[in-house]
Design goal:
475 residues; Amidase signature (AS) enzymes; eight-stranded mixed β-sheet
Length: 475
């Protein structure tokens, strides 16, 4: 007999609407699973049982059922503030910090009718592409707990993959949604810059970080995306939407449910990092990409090989921006010793960057944004590997040498950061499950504002592959 967590998020929402289950019953079910499984997996760093049950009761009586995420449990990434709940940012520097205000993305998700069960794990200040810190156990891959879950939304990905949440929001500044989604066998969507007003990236350095969904299915990702978009007078406020919202469905849920259209796809294995680092594709990454090409061709989509024009300005410019972003961490003097070696290296390097160097880096990335959009403009979407390697073992990344650690991250995930720089939307899809049982994904990069196309393509591929039926052993 199917349990509540066996249902997709959309199925759960429909059950809630019919009254077949209640928000309180659903929240209690997930809290019990978290109690049982989280100690092994490290998905949550804080669980707010009492607050979640009280919120579920409040949703039942005071929030309209028409709210797009009514009654669905979520988790807040531990880079986000929720009033009265510890916000650790994965760092010893923030031990004991409890904010008295909430971030806009948290308030938006609450307004959509969701229920937070606590804080999902993130690495220190969300900087690395893996979720291992000195303040909490590592986020372990539910498919093989000896492997990492990716990052920085690693805790959110583990929670969804292991059935501790139906869906989860994350943030993505260089791949931080797509990397853990690919590692954990999920759908991960990085929206266009500005698509989610409460987590738009517009107010961040170089506009890199945006908020988006992690889910088991494409329709679940679309459901959460619609809920993350602020609503004005009951209608989605896209800020930069390219089409009018649908009267009946959220616009992205409708695109995913219908999953229609034939598109011209580029296929690419080059990345923005190829001039600076030796990038090698694992056989599993090549196999997953080839599988996706075969399936999309069978669906009638046009397929064409493409490659990026080499650009030696990208790597040094991105490194500079990443370092300057860390320079803003509020650690002075002896407080720096509370930071992990990678963070400390980034912070010190960032604080040594001159104003002219920062301006030059921003100019280079702005030029790269225009170049990448132009190079991909003849395609409706471009297909790449999600990651160059299989999920890395826990402890694989160098903890002492910041330079080597940065290189390892680039070589693990060379296809993600250029999408943040360009502001384009991208989705990772869990197409393959090799003999070792660990998922491998592919990435689709869309045109500006092209989330609906990515969701339609993802839904078509999902119907052929059926990945939602796969579950890790902890399920």
């Amino acid at each position: 007999m199917a349990e509540l967590h066996d249902l997709t998020a959309l199925e759960q929402w429909n059950e809630l609407q019919r009254g077949a289950t209640s928000p309180t019953e659903l929240v209690a079910h997930y809290l019990d699973r978290i109690d049982r499984l989280n100690p092994e997996l490290g998905a949550f760093v804080t669980v707010t049982r009492d607050a979640a049950l009280a919120r579920a009761a409040q949703v039942e009586t005071s929030v309209p059922r028409t709210a797009p995420l009514w009654g669905l449990p979520l988790g807040d990434k531990d880079l986000w503030l929720r009033a009265g709940v510890p916000a650790g940012f994965g760092s010893r520097l923030r031990t004991g910090f409890v904010p008295d205000t909430s971030d806009e993305i948290v308030e938006t998700l609450d307004a959509a009718g969701s229920i937070s069960l606590g804080k999902t794990a993130t690495p220190e200040f969300g900087l690395p592409s893996y979720t291992e810190s000195l303040v909490a156990p590592p986020a372990r891959n539910p498919w093989d707990p000896s492997l990492g879950a990716g990052g920085s939304s690693g805790g959110a990905a583990v929670a969804v993959a292991a059935g501790l949440l139906p869906i989860a929001p994350g943030s993505d500044g260089g791949g931080s949604i797509r990397i853990p989604a690919a590692a954990c066998g999920l759908v991960g969507l990085k929206p266009s810059r500005g698509r989610v007003p409460a987590g738009s990236g517009i107010d961040s350095l170089a506009g890199l970080s945006v908020a988006g969904p992690l889910a088991r299915t494409v329709t679940d990702a679309a459901l959460l995306l619609d809920g993350m978009i602020a609503r004005v007078h009951g209608r989605p406020d896209h800020h930069y939407a390219l089409r009018a919202p649908d009267e009946n469905d959220g616009p992205y849920l409708g695109a995913a449910v219908h999953g229609e259209g034939r598109f011209q796809l580029g296929v690419m294995t080059t990345s923005a990092w190829d001039d600076a680092y030796e990038i090698s594709l694992a056989p599993e990454a090549i196999t997953a990409l080839d599988h996706a090409v075969v399936e999309f061709a069978a669906l009638g989509h046009g397929i064409e090989q493409t490659a990026l024009t080499p650009d030696p300005t990208y790597a040094p410019a991105f490194r500079t921006i990443w370092q300057v972003g860390a320079a803003r961490i509020p650690a002075e003097g002896a407080q720096e010793e509370l930071l992990e070696p990678l963070t400390r290296w980034l912070l010190r390097a960032g604080r040594a960057v001159s104003a002219r160097e920062l301006a030059d880096a921003l100019t280079a990335l702005s030029a790269y944004e225009r170049s990448l959009i132009r190079q991909l403009s003849s395609f409706d979407a471009v297909l790449t590997p999600a990651m160059a390697m299989t999920p890395r073992p826990v402890g694989w990344f160098d903890r002492e040498d910041g330079e080597r650690n940065f290189a390892q991250q680039v070589q693990y995930t060379p296809f993600t950061s250029m999408v943040n720089v360009s502001g384009l939307p991208a989705i990772t899809l869990p197409i393959d499950q090799p003999s070792a049982g660990v998922p491998m994904g592919v990435q689709l990069v869309g045109r500006p504002g092209g989330e609906a196309t990515l969701l339609a393509l993802g839904a078509q591929l999902e119907r052929r592959i059926g990945w939602a039926a796969r579950h890790p052993r902890v399920w």
